[in-house]
Amino acid sequence: MADKTSASQTEGAKSNAKNETKNEATSEAKATREEKLVQDVADLDDYARWYQDVVYKADMADLSPVRGCMVIRPYGYALWENMQRQLDDRIKATGHENLYFPLFIPYSFLMKEAEHVEGFAPEVALVTRAGGEELEDPLVVRPTSETVIGYMYAQWVHSYRDLPLLYNQWANVVRWEKRTRPFLRTSEFLWQEGHTVHRTEQEAEDETLLILNAVYQDFVEKELAIPVIPGRKSESEKFAGALRTYSIEAMMGDGKALQAATSHNLGQNFARSFGIEFQDADGQVKTAWTTSWGASTRLVGALIMAHGDANGLRMPPRVAPTQAIIVPIWRKDEEREAVAKLVSEVEAALRTAGVRVKADWREERPGWKYNEWELRGVPVRIEIGPRDAANGQVMLVPRTDRSAKEAVAARAVAERVPALLEEIQRALYEQALAFRLSRTYQAADYDQFRALFADRSKQGFVEAWWCGDAACEAQVKAETQATIRNLPLDHPEKPADAICVHCGRPASDWAIFARAY
Amino acid sequence: MADKTSASQTEGAKSNAKNETKNEATSEAKATREEKLVQDVADLDDYARWYQDVVYKADMADLSPVRGCMVIRPYGYALWENMQRQLDDRIKATGHENLYFPLFIPYSFLMKEAEHVEGFAPEVALVTRAGGEELEDPLVVRPTSETVIGYMYAQWVHSYRDLPLLYNQWANVVRWEKRTRPFLRTSEFLWQEGHTVHRTEQEAEDETLLILNAVYQDFVEKELAIPVIPGRKSESEKFAGALRTYSIEAMMGDGKALQAATSHNLGQNFARSFGIEFQDADGQVKTAWTTSWGASTRLVGALIMAHGDANGLRMPPRVAPTQAIIVPIWRKDEEREAVAKLVSEVEAALRTAGVRVKADWREERPGWKYNEWELRGVPVRIEIGPRDAANGQVMLVPRTDRSAKEAVAARAVAERVPALLEEIQRALYEQALAFRLSRTYQAADYDQFRALFADRSKQGFVEAWWCGDAACEAQVKAETQATIRNLPLDHPEKPADAICVHCGRPASDWAIFARAY
Question: Between A and B, how many CB-CB pairs are < 8 A?
């Protein structure tokens, strides 16, 4: 493991040098974002390699000595904390409270919901010894908590007056994955899992969609600046034990899809298995309806891949650990003094204005620092040199467009920087949306469909009618590696003669097909 | 388990009724807090029973189906979240960053530090199967993370320029305990664990004490309103693998001690075991110095026991999930309307003033609601009836002193309630401190010492000189169940003829002896 890390660091150093050369080239002939990404994919063997480089070089995460588990480093964790706070605010604003259930689940609990155990048993980690003794009933390290929560809810719910129960927990979960990649798929990951109980099917469905739209879509689009498509999962892609699963799907920089969050209407499946019953207003004892929904550190991976470019990360300002980095420029000591005075004024003014700002006083040349902070995706760079100090001005350089460098009077910084951050937030969203639209295709027939997935450099989302048959879906996957991401809630009206893009039988749903993370 | 819970709920209901009778009695002959607690201990078999009742009846936690693990319910978790935020602010204000290490630690890592493995191996939970296969090297569910963190730090630290590393993580940990009690001792608990690396022994010692004082003591005294005694642990009570352990010790309502947080100077023990080395400015490769420090959900238990009284919890306002509860009083519909108008005005005014306020509109009689919110320890009750509505005033009742009920003009509420919350915060601290002082004794000889621990209703802290010998400490424990809590940093000057309270040999340290949680 130690070897691997240093290998990756060496690679990192190499490709840093590469980046510098590339930067110069890029600044002359400014490529559009899309071109840059394609260029990037072409330049560096593959996109996966670019992703890993960014994760390790920008100090987002590191390999750990435990197979499939990562260490989230301070820069990555600060991003996660900002994301958590924003998501948590939305969860609470929609009436949910946080609580905490045990890490361990008796293995026998997992067996109570037939589909659930089938879905999760193969990838669980089992505690068989504890406190020096063999356990009679082994404990599962939670892969998700529906079962233990179902058991508790059965004890808490007695009357319709107890409903709805609207709870959420922030926790770590473990799923023993064969192939792992930092943030995207790790054996342990951090997430929130919401678990609610309702009186009627309609209430449960409303909750499932409220979370999908008002919490997840709103959060991912507004804070992470990633446009998503909300929709229903096909039967074969739904959560093990759910009645219906909904997801929001985002497009990454290589045209592949990433499921950014899911919301499940569990129907009465778990309520029946665990006996969550209540006496209704009419005196009848009824089985409750439950939901569950989750979003995880995977979103960090989504953010990296949705916005990153050849120079590294691009952090959406609203969640960026550092929103503005001040790079002081000086040669002689007397210059340093004048620069330092303006730097500390600007820093204080920005901090007062609520901007997360830092000044980089390390003894390195400015160009090295520019690369470093571009790699880390800090939205705004503020350059302050001796001439700026003399003129009482600073240079602002947005990460999204280096050519849009602007001189701003020092006294106007506290007003201009927050506005610029908003512009960058918007620009990132618009660029990601434009990219997705440019990579979203419609296929009239299956030949066209296959052709669209044949050229990897243009891969994206393919929208098409589908018959609703899982066998058909499986064949498409076998032939193109594309899966149905979801059946968008917002879709064209179905013509009477709509047919499945694959088998030609009458269509049931409008679907988005894509290769996915 | 289901049976146990309902049993405890029945007991809860019973003692609720008991409380009501008791309330009336108390309001006539107002007992001091100390008397009430003693009365309480006398009334309800024992203090442990009172504690458990409060935890379950106030919905702080519930039993879980996993032995030794609890469910933290929303009311308890909201308190923990407030505590976390305050503690996290202090951790960051002293220059630390958060990050996240894996839940699992290779068993072989635990073996690398001899004392550490001895301390923790007996109580670890082991994952032996994962993903359907037996693991070659079983994984320990982290009981604390020094070992896996030491492994990573060895890769991150190269030069003295990399130091200090000042990191912290919020996480769950597992220690398989034989006897567990909610919050106080559970097999899984939530905590923060800080882990830092330094260039010199002095820097490590400074860090250890900075955390003890500026972070832990300041947090527990200011936010939780619990006075604590900072001091060094004796050799036999220190952390497995540490050079020196420091703690802050608090007195609970029954006179027993509770270790509220610990801060360890690990010396070079872990740095040596894991190879944390750096090239110093002089070109020499040196072994680093490390520290670790933690505070956990145990603090919730401390808060309950330091402040609770015969009527239930008393939440310190700064961390109370709800700081003010409005209880509307009405009989007829037209009364309800006038009351509702004032209630919503007061609620809005308080919310604007930053007060965490709720109105209780449930269809229950006011007296029932008073008991309920007293049990939950809400600092201020606001009663609003028809006459109040007519006069444009409200009644404020502090949880700390029901007889101090005051009428306040509705328009003055936004000013008076925050001030009252500050008064209550102060009163809780002062009461806890007065109680501790009244239960802190000095023993001139061992007969006196034993006598002080003989009467359980008066048990407390005994300060005395001690020889420094672990055998002597062990004998005292065997004979009185009292252990050395710590050797206070603030202590009297040692007279030349100071002798150990137990053996009479020359004394080395001033120690606090107490029975402890």
Answer: 162
The b-or-e profile of A467-502 (16+ CB within 10 A means b, else e) is bbbeebbeebeeebebbbbbbbeeeeeeeeebbbbb
Which A residues 123-142 touch B at CB under 8 Å?
Answer: 123-132, 138-139, 141
Q: Kindly report the CA angle at A405 between A404 and A409, in degrees rounded to 5?
A: 130
Specify whether B416 is located in the same domain as B464: no
- Contacting residues of B for A176, CB less than 8 Å apart: 130-132
For residue B45, name the pLDDT band (cuts at 50, 70, 90): low
Whether residue B10 lies within 8 A of chain A, CB to CB, comes out as no
Distance between CA atoms of B366 and A197, rounded to whole angstroms? 29
Residue of A nearest to B85 (CA): A85
In total, how many domains does chain B have?
4
Tokens at residue A43, please?
């330049």
Q: Are B8 and B108 within one domain? A: no
Tell me, yes or no, whether B111 and B126 share the same domain: yes
ipTM associated with this complex: 0.90
| Rounded Cα gap, residues A460 and A464, in angstroms | 13
Q: What CATH number is associated with residue A205?
A: 3.30.930.10
Q: What is the CATH number of the domain that holds A474?
A: 3.30.110.30
In contact, B297 and B291? CB cutoff 8 Å? no
Tens of pLDDT, residues A113-154: 878 788 888 899 999 999 999 999 999 999 999 999 999 999
Residue of A117, A141, A159 to mutate for B, most B C-beta atoms under 10 A? A141
Query: For the domain that residue B401 is a member of, what is the CATH number?
Result: 3.40.50.800
Q: What is the pTM of this model?
A: 0.91
Whether B145 and B202 share a structural domain = yes
Bridge pairing between strands A61-63 and A70-72: antiparallel
CB of A81 less than 8 A from some CB of B: yes
A199 and A333 in a single domain? The answer is: no
Query: Using an 8 Å Cβ cutoff, are B196 and B264 in contact?
Result: no
Among A306, A332, A361, residue at a domain's last position: A306
Residue among A100, A132, A155 minimizing CB distance to B190: A100
Chain B residue closest to A4 (CA)?
B155
Burial profile A25-54: b = 16 or more Cβ within 10 angstroms, e = fewer: ebeeeeeebeebbbbbbeebeebeebbbbb
Domain co-membership, B195 together with B341 = no
Cβ neighbours of B129 in A, within 8 Å:
125-126, 128, 138
The reply to whether omega before B164 is within 30° of 0 (cis) is yes
Residue A422 lies in a domain: yes
Distance from CA of A99 to the nearest CA of B (A): 5
Q: What is the mean pLDDT of chain A?
A: 91
The reply to whether B299 and B393 lie within a common domain is: no
Same domain, B246 and B290: yes
| Chain CA centroid to CA B361, Å | 32
Per the document, the length of chain A is: 517
pLDDT in tens, B304-319: 999 999 999 999 999 9
User: Are B209 and B247 within 8 A, CB to CB?
Assistant: no
Tokens of B418: 């925050």
CA distance B259 to chain A (A): 23
Nearest to A200 by CA among A163, A155, A157: A163
Q: What are the φ and ψ backbone dihedral angles of A404, each rounded to 5 degrees? A: -90, 25
**B contact residues 393-422, partner A, Cβ 8 Å cutoff:** none
Decide if A186 is inside a domain.
yes
Residue B311 lies in a domain: no
3-state secondary structure of A86: helix
Domain span holding position B509: 440-514
Residue B243 CA to residue B258 CA, distance in Å, equals: 22
CB atoms within 10 A of CB B179: 7
- A16 located within any domain: no
Identify the domain boundary among B44, B72, B100: B72
